[in-house]
Prior knowledge:
Blueprint: H1 11-20, E1 45-55, H2 66-84, E2 87-97, H3 102-118, E3 123-130, E4 136-146, E5 161-165, H4 170-179, H5 183-186, H6 191-202, H7 211-217, E6 218-224, H8 228-239, E7 242-246, H9 254-262, H10 267-272, E8 278-283, H11 288-298, E9 302-309, E10 316-318
Parallel strand pairs: 2-3, 7-10
Antiparallel strand pairs: 1-4, 2-4, 5-8, 5-9, 6-8, 7-9
Amino acid sequence: MGARQPDPQSAEERLIARYFRPLAKHPGAFNLVDDAAVLTPPAGSDLVLTADAIVGGVHFFPDDPPDAVAKKALRVNLSDLAAKGAKPAGFLLSLVLPQIDQSWLEAFARGLGQDADAYACPLLGGDTDRTSGPVTVSIAAFGTLPQGTIVRRVGAKSGDRILATGSIGDGALGLLLRRDPGAAQRWQLSDREREHLADRYLLPQPRNALAEAVRRHASAAMDVSDGLVGDLGKLCAASGVTAEVEIDRVPLSDAARKALAADPDVLDTILTGGDDYEIICAMQPDKIAAFCAAATTAGVAVTEIGGVIEGWVPPRFLAASGKPVAFKATSFSHF
């Protein structure tokens, strides 16, 4: 018998070929056998770029299902594209692992592939590395939109109204429940309500179905990832304005309302905790009806929560009495 020929592929190359090459369906990905990919935006389009990383023990728990970890990593980036009014076009993946766990990788790749197909956002390339630390998933996502139509944080003007998609605070409450499971009993949550909050933390719901309507109608917009109070403050600061929000108008899920009724102190968590991945936007009053109609067609709830006014101070969040509410911290921050 002849001598066995050595495998020309490294372990890393085999990993990429087995788990991620099947996801690289875009022709510009070159089947993941080159050093780079090519993405050609449609004629007359701008390319929108965003990047976010999620780290084990910071953005997800080590025992979270790997398919959900993959989906979360992609969806937090898709949420940024949605808030800019962009259509997903593709993404790059950098995956840093402490070890090769075949079953974990199979589930991770399966979840990533499902969302890549669901959101029409194909894998274009990336990198894999090894670490002595936690699993880290970094994604750079790309989107397209007609030239000059990106919706930035800049652009809100006095007289604009503020709208929010979906519900606020569920993700932060879901994280609180992961850290303190007994809170579900104290808040008298049903199993369905507890699962709703847990799922909203585990698996964001980016509002890409509403991206075109945001692009057509919003004066300024951003996704809510670090908390409504802080993120609205960032939007207002960029636009050189301030705002007033009526707290009673902020959209809450049934589970969040029940938690708040049982423990008023969770208001801070709801409004500043982050992990919402909803969209807030400033909009001229005469555009609200068309925006709401588009949201209804897309199946996304939207709520008018306040208005933009002149000023350079942080936005005020008003209680039912009309008095401003003070928060322990305005936003989640890594540092």
